[in-house]
Design a protein that fits this description.
Elements lengths: L6 H6 L8 H17 L1 H12 L10 H10 L2 H19 L6 E4 L5 E8 L2 E5 L8 H14 L3 E6 L9 H10 L3 E4 L2 H10 L9 E3 L4 H10 L4 E2 L7 E6 L5 H12 L6 E6 L2 H16 L4 H11 E5 L3 H11 L3 E5 L3 H5 L7 E4 L5 H6 L25 E8 L2 H17 L3 H13 L6
Parallel strand pairs: 3-4, 3-6, 4-5, 6-7, 8-9, 8-11, 9-10, 11-12
Antiparallel strand pairs: 1-2, 2-13
Bound molecules: nicotinamide-adenine-dinucleotide (NAD), L-histidinol and zinc ion.
Length: about 425
């Protein structure tokens, strides 16, 4: 079910952030209809794609309170435990405004402000993701965002899973709207009667969601491409095949479009993991999904040494990278592109998905080359601050005028010259 292939074949299985013309056309149509018809389009698409006809897209306060009562106490405890660890990690990311004062009294600086209203996409579809609610919302709350609007697709009975709503309450969401897919992204970008227009849309989702976010970028800001889940494991002969197989399956079970790759220096480990994956997959509730994902986007490859393994992994720039080798800290220095790196046999990826604290919304499809994990910074924006005095103007003004003249921008030069002349200094 998971093939052992050569390096070239493995690279051919690599997923990219590209979309087909057909996908682009579909999502453009959805966006245009939501822009033109507002809630009416949201209701129609929810009927078409989620199979439910809704009279109201709103989740009422009472539904949120009921959800907290409805979920098992064990789950509430886990949500609060995870929320606390996620909050603590993200508080370390806060950046403060700052100023620098020069000897002549010039003050320069940077002011940091939270965004005012953000939209958080929480995937629904085939799985329930309360952890994704925490991971998206807590950094926004830590940053000081005033209003967090959460969108998520309804289930066939029109409800939102209680665990998702309970997580929204724990995390501090202000409003929940029952709508998913590209239509939800369009609603957040342009605003409808039920969905307020936001400044930024964050959160993972399937290809329709990821593409819609890219298409509305510019109208609003977006975080990054966080699409179908991925894992790469680099393992040597010391790795336990049971652990490696379990971790590959942990991401493969997300969806038929997930990818799971093992790069190893040991042919024995490769064969053992292959057998182990088959054995463990049979026991999984979502085994069918994992199996399809592994057939499509899964692979094992044997390389000559760990340096080659690290280079191959850097080429893939995976969302999650596990280093199951004798000296993971030694290998870390060779890793340049990965959304999150897990070191050693006990740092299994699902700990990062749920409770460790770092964000699980990570760049996918090779975009870890340039995108970072979702974090507090995504919810902050900065303004620069400049305050000149007379002395500094006399020093810098002539230099600025020379540059303005080189650019042929006379009014720029004149704005400085009138001040220099007022001070009795020669404008040029
Ligand atoms: N990177 C992360 O942090 C992270 C976290 C959780 C989930 N995920 C990923 O998010 C994805 C969730 O996908 P999902 O599909 O389960 O849920 P989803 O909420 O992303 O998508 C469901 C929506 O897709 C739309 N849709 C479905 N088929 C369509 C079609 N043919 N045309 C137009 N729209 C259509 C529908 O509107 C539906 O509501 C998975 O790939 C999973 O791996 C990633
Ligand atoms: N592994 C996913 C990100 O790729 C996040 C997640 C949510 N729940 C379980 N896992
Ligand atoms: Zn996961």
């Amino acid at each position: 079910m998971i093939e052992i292939v050569g390096r070239e074949a493995l690279l051919r299985k690599r997923k990219t952030a590209e979309f087909s013309d057909e996908e682009v056309a579909t999502v453009r149509k959805i966006i245009t209809r939501v822009k033109e018809e507002g809630d009416q389009a949201l209701v129609a698409f929810t009927k078409q794609f989620d199979g439910v006809k809704l009279d109201s897209l709103h989740v009422e306060e009472a539904e949120l309170a009921e959800a907290v009562q409805a979920v098992e106490p064990k789950l509430m405890t886990a949500l609060r435990h995870a929320a606390e660890r996620i909050r603590r990690f993200h508080e370390k990311q806060l950046t403060a405004s700052w100023i620098m004062e020069e000897a002549d009294g010039t003050i320069l600086g940077q002011r940091v402000h939270p965004l005012e209203r953000v939209g958080v996409y929480v995937p629904g579809g085939r799985a329930v993701y309360p952890s994704t609610v925490l991971m998206n919302v807590i950094p926004a709350v830590v940053a000081g965002v005033k209003e967090v609007v959460m969108v998520t697709p309804p289930q066939p009975d029109g409800s939102i899973p209680a665990a998702t709503l309970a997580a929204a309450t724990v995390a501090g969401v202000n409003r929940v709207v029952k709508v998913g897919g590209a239509q939800a992204v369009a609603a957040l970008a342009y605003g409808t009667a039920s969905v307020p227009k936001v400044d930024k849309i964050v959160g993972p989702g399937n290809r329709f969601v990821a593409l819609a976010k890219q298409l509305v970028f510019g109208e609003v800001d977006i975080d990054s491409v966080a699409g179908p889940s991925e894992i790469v494991v680099i393992a040597d002969e010391t790795a336990d095949p049971v652990f490696v197989a379990a971790d590959l399956l942990s991401q493969a079970e997300h969806g038929e479009d997930s990818s799971a790759i093992l790069i190893t220096t040991s042919a024995d480990l490769a064969a053992n993991v292959q057998t182990e994956v088959v054995r463990q997959c049979k026991r999984l509730v979502r085994g069918r999904i994992a199996q399809t994902a592994l057939e499509r986007y899964g692979a094992i490859t044997v390389v000559g040494d760990l340096q080659e393994a690290a280079e191959l992994s850097n080429q893939l720039a995976p969302e999650h990278l596990e280093l199951m080798v004798a000296d993971p800290w030694g290998l870390l220095g060779r890793i340049r592109h990965a959304g999150a790196v897990f070191l050693g046999p006990y740092s299994t990826e699902p700990l990062g998905d749920y409770v460790a604290g770092p964000n699980h919304v990570l760049p996918t499809a090779g975009t870890a080359r340039f995108f970072s994990p979702l974090g507090v910074d995504h919810f902050l924006k900065k303004s620069s601050l400049l305050c000149y005095g007379k002395e500094a103007l006399l020093r810098d003004g002539p230099q600025a005028m020379a540059l303005a003249e080189a650019e042929g921008l006379g009014a720029h030069a004149a704005a400085i010259r009138v001040r220099l002349e007022r001070e009795g200094a020669k404008g040029r």
